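Morning F.,

Quick status update on the modeling queue. The single chain you submitted on Monday has been processed. Sequence for confirmation:
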Amino acid sequence: MNRVVVGALAVVVVLAGMALGMMAGTLTAPAASQPAASGLVAGLGTTPPSTAPGVASPSASGLPSATPEPTATPSPRPTPTPGPTLVADPLTGRPVTVAVASLHPIAVMVDDLSPARPQSGFSAASIVWQAPAEGGIPRYMMVFQETIPGDVGPVRSSRYYYIAWAAELRAVYAHAGGSPQALATLRSQGHGQLVFNADEFRWGGSFRRVATRNPPHNLYTTGKQLRALVAATGAKDGPISWPWTFAPDAPVAARPVGGRIQVSYLANTIRFDYDRLTNTYLRSVSVEGRQVDAATRQRVAPKNVIVMQMHFGPLNDGHPKKNRLEAVVIGSGPAWISTNGITIKGTWKKTALTSATRFFDGHGRPVTLTVGQTFVQVMKTSDPISFVAGKPAPPARPGPIAR
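Structure tokens below.
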């Protein structure tokens, strides 16, 4: 009788286990080393059957426990990639990469007779020098460093005092011939001693004649060709030592309204009108009026204008009809420095051919220019110059009162 009861109980337990396995979604096989019946009878169901991976095990109550919800693993935030290191460009103060700040300067002689206008290259130049070249007829020297220009020209011939300014940077010096004095200097010291000589007569493949201008006002080059001349002439990119210092624009409220600078050469009167909103000096020339860069169609408008007076005299080079000049380029003299709409009178100083021309205020302190392009107008002591100060900025109007 007892054996029957026990047997019946065993059958019931087995059937119950099978039912529970079905409810859990799987039927667990008994261990091979132990008969199912004896295991169940000995423990009366207290030993749970093993379960397959990923399947909930029965709980102590005999019912399957709930499968836990998966926990979302937060994705790691990407590490920001640092941008390039920026430094102040030595010739303009603009923020540029170290590689751009190390580009070797290139100086280009540019024509300024009326048939040469409008010229190309102004917008990309870091510094622009203008001085008398023949008699009182002026000529430009554009210095490119941080920006590679498109077209540049018309390219014209060299003069000794322009070499002296280009020598301050040991620039690659692009020109088309020159005065006997200048050419002799370039032959002896144009291999890096003063400049790297890039004469069109030797490097003709880097220049071209355009059909839209009459000679000699039709010789042009490009920034790409000029950059190729850096390596061709033996120059190298690298750190530039330059003493000029720069500061950001003055706040608009501190800038004056209006103001004008005017200087006159024999064949060109230059006028700068200060623009308060852009903090630039809008440049105009005689005959054409508003001056634009022919390559970009942009208005010529530097951030800084420096007028310096220097002693010039006739160059006795055996060609009196050329009316070429020489200048006392090493020394000092009066200078007017205009930036942020304000003009101060000071001095310029240059101590050697390869020393930078520096500018000082009336107390002998180095001036600080505004970040951006600088025009240097070199004048004979007899040339007319004039400055009209701007008016003080109007007081700011109070805003509406909140009610």
